[in-house]
């Protein structure tokens, strides 16, 4: 029923357009007489198929209407499908191999740089001495440019710098802290590639790990740690992890820790 109504509406539209539109003569070409409403309606009834109804609503002359060709996209036989599946599996395994190679190269590079770091810049573990409680860290969170050495390491080699801080404060060994940092970073990167929601959860979990050890630094150095300080620690590691790592490193380098 709807199809018939559409055809009749198209026929009426075509009849009006065909009646009101003047035919201009082109020099050197035979003039084609306009189609009468009866001929137009018969043509539309013959060609009234869903694939051309939209074209009829746009075009007035059915002689310009052409059915869209049917094109088969992709394989059509079982052999072609099997070939395509094997090809895609090969690409997938190639991608896995590339990722594994990049992972191994990255780990080897970080371990090599960490070994050089331990020989050139590693801080010794601080002697244990009790200190009076203080209200804040020795240096501001955004004053890292005052120590370009720490600022450069926190920006360009934060895994090594953070591991050195944990080692100097006696919270973790250098290599243990480095592996923890790499595991958290890789888990967060993988989760972000897999699913945005999972990536957000992994990012928050990573922030929680680093905030936990920042809280331990507050305890070690007798730094005030109320609710607002905890909120600041979370916000700093969420928004500027490099500044947080540099501030913690400068605290360890210049402050002796208290004996618990």
State the gist of this model:
This protein is mainly α. Helix content is 67%, strand content 0%.
Can you describe this structure?
The protein has 260 residues and is mostly helical. The protein folds into 2 domains: 2-18 and 35-64; 105-254, no CATH class. It has helices at residues 2-20, 37-46, 50-58, 78-120, 148-156, 158-168, 174-194, 196-220, 227-239, 241-254. α5 (148-156) crosses α6 (158-168), α5 (148-156) packs across α10 and α8 packs across α9. The protein is elongated, with a radius of gyration of 37 Å. Mean pLDDT is 75; it is low at 5-23, 49-65 and 256-260. Keywords: Membrane, Signal, Transmembrane, Transmembrane helix. The chain crosses the membrane at residues 92-117, 168-191, 197-213. Residues 1-18 form the signal peptide.
Which stretches of 5+ consecutive residues score pLDDT under 50? Answer: 5-23, 49-65, 256-260
Approximately how much helix is present in the residues?
A: 55-70%
Sum up the overall morphology in one term: elongated
- Strand percentage lies at under 5%
Our Rg estimate from Cα atoms comes to: 37 Å
Number of domains: 2
Count of helix runs: 10
Distance between the termini: 87 Å
Largest sheet: none
The count of DSSP E runs of length 2 or more, i.e. the number of strands, is: 0
Mean pLDDT across the residues is 75
The topology string of helices and strands comes to HHHHHHHHHH
Structural class: mainly alpha
């Amino acid at each position: 029923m709807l199809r018939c109504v559409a055809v009749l509406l198209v026929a009426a539209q075509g009849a009006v357009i065909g009646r009101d539109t003047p035919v201009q003569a082109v020099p050197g070409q035979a003039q084609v007489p306009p189609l009468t409403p009866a001929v137009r309606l018969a043509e539309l009834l013959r060609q009234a198929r869903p694939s051309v109804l939209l074209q009829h609503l746009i075009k007035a002359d059915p002689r310009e209407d052409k059915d869209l060709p049917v094109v088969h996209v992709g394989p059509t036989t079982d052999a072609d499908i099997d070939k395509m599946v094997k090809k895609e599996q090969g690409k997938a395994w190639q991608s896995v191999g590339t990722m594994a190679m990049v992972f191994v190269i990255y780990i080897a590079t970080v371990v090599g740089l960490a070994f050089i770091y331990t020989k050139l810049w590693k801080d010794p573990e601080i002697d244990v001495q009790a200190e009076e409680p203080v209200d804040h860290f020795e240096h501001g969170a955004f004053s890292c440019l005052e120590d370009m050495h720490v600022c450069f390491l926190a920006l360009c080699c934060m895994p090594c710098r953070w591991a050195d801080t944990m080692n100097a404060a006696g919270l973790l060994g250098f290599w243990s802290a480095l592996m923890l940092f790499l595991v958290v970073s890789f888990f967060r990167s993988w989760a972000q590639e897999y699913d945005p929601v999972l990536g957000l959860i992994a990012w928050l979990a990573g922030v929680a790990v680093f905030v936990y050890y920042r809280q331990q630094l507050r305890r070690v150095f007798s730094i005030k740690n109320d609710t607002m300080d905890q909120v600041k620690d979370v916000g700093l590691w969420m928004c500027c992890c490099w500044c947080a790592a540099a501030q913690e490193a400068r605290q360890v380098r210049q402050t002796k820790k208290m004996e618990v």
